[in-house]
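> run fold 3-carboxymuconate cyclase
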Amino acid sequence: MSWQALISLTGVALWFGMIGLLAQSFAQESGTANALVGNVFVMTNSTNPIRGNEIAMYGRKADGSLVIQGYFPTRGLGSGPAPTSTTLGAPLSVAADGIGSQHSLILNKNHRCLFAVNAGSNTVTAFQVHAGIGLRLINTVNSGGVFPASLAVQNQVLYVLNTGLSGTLMGFTVSSDCGLAPLAGGRQDLAVFTASSPEPKPNDILTTPAQVAFTPKGDKLVISVKGGPAANDDGRVVVFNLTSQGRIAGEGTATHFSAAEKTGGAFGFDFSARGDLIITHVGSFTVSSFTIASNNTLRANGSPLSTGFPFPCWIARSGSYAYLAHFGELPGQGQINGPGTISTVVIAEDGTLSPLKVQGATVTFTSAINANHAIDIAVVAGQDGHSFLYAVQPRLGRVGAWLINADGSLKDLGTFPGLTPGVNPDAPETLQFRERCFLAKKPASACVFGSAQGIAGF
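> ok
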């Protein structure tokens, strides 16, 4: 027997042995107050040369609390912390936002498949989900571009948004066992829509594309672009038509944004119940609502709504409420890095937005550490009609959890450990961190810290 075959058989044996042990543990907790009823997944986004990027798997209890269950390697590298940015002038640390995107980790509709980007190795990993038990890696494939950052899945088609260099979209077919294979004719160059700052390589995350998603009907693909360093480049949303097989049909249609109109920067987005596009404007501290017209342009539903907090990036919807995760103040030389915040907006039936004005509509990530940023967020539906909101807190290496009340307000459920705490963005050496961890021959001290990003659950 060859050593390759022996290793393969050993891996299978270890997998089934682990499944048996976890299943026994899961069964012991069933029927108790501590019963696990779902899972939440967070990507470590690590560049550790031995362990690489991993998925931290949490068991979710009925009350929304989390317990770590295990770590599952992707066979790829994450991005690590983001280097200090000079795009806005003075050096600004954005270390906590290593990828600069939304939906770098996603589940398919039936929660059987989990997909993760490996931004540092230009690959995407597909897992099978065994609820309450573990993840089984199916395959890791080339992303079809540089620095994969966001994923979208609909039925048997997955698209990856590569944000490095000029940017590309790459389509894949999803097999019945969750495996990925390139979709013929599924690659789209985005050079005409992107103008990202090339430094630090493979691009400064403050200017790159941020998200890709299918529309609710699945007939269009949407991407957001934050905007380049050139004057008056304040970002855009691009809409592509799709064929019935999920391939991109024709050229994309871009709607450009303007800081003067309070729509500077396009970051995270979600869709309302009637299909309106609700998008955060990271450069203007606003959120706005648009209807996608038949010609793929965007028609505004009312005026942009000021969020009242700096750098709204990530968004997740629950019914008629949208929750926005604000990164917090960017630190510079001699500044104190402000904490992250989650705010809540109400989506009216006509698509217009208004702030939720009840106690608990806003939460601030207070801690002994000033730089307790908010990163990705996810809404997870519970079994009893309740829903929960989860957010990555990379500076602390924890996941924050809130119960979503009937009036849209949030009840704090605490934070849960399991991730490596992140680099201190206020440290003087962090402002000298100018090269990506996975590209550096002599990695900076920041590279040994965590940079968790990407969250999904059920």
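The chain has one domain: 31-457.
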